[in-house]
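Protein: Thaumatin family
Species: Arabidopsis suecica
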Amino acid sequence: MAKRLPLIFLLALHLLLSGVLSTSIITIENKCNHTVWPVIFSWNVDSQVSPTGFALRRGEARAIHAPSSWYGLISARTLCSTDSSGKFSCATGDCESGTIECPGNYGWAPATYVYFRINNGGINSYTISVEYGYNLPLMVVPSQRTRTCISAGCVVELNKTCPKDLMKLSRENIVACSSTCMEFDTPETCCTRDFKSKQNCKPTVYTQNFERACPFAQIYAYDDNNSTVTCRNSTDYVITFCPSSNPNKTK
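Structure follows.
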């Protein structure tokens, strides 16, 4: 007689097949005319994604497996290089780890972010954010589309309309557009202290520049534009940096 499978194995198999322990495959592709270096950061120490950083040349794509309960972000770095001492750094989106991977704590940068929650209460969700700034256009396309699970992105070249005092330059070229919070760090621009509420945290002429271009992205801390997209917990996603020609949001 064959030995019985351990009860814990059977339970885990049941949970996996029922979707409770489901994972999502997130494919990151680069359609920019230059190399980008994606960043994958996890807030939940018990649910991590690896690797945390790598290079994607023009036209390349790479799939990562996001486990159940994963809560993290994905962004991209540009204009990266390694100096004579071996330190790795980037002109935009740098995680300041000094290496191509981004372990440990993460410091915010003027970059375009996607936040993911995988199998959070039985659903997935993602949010496009330019709350800290912008460096690249991107689009997220889910594998299973529904009324609430739709494609979303920020595909307009915001660097071209960036206010002068928010521009980030590299060799006299505009490479990113910072947010007012990142640039000025005041309670009003960062919605802290007396401004830490929906009533007191208001849009500004700066945030309106982002909102006009990317109306479905999260623009500032108390932004109320329904920027979070919810999907079934078995949904996979494709993130495209520099999508060729996509609308801001399509069904």
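Remarks: The first helix runs from residue 7 to 18.
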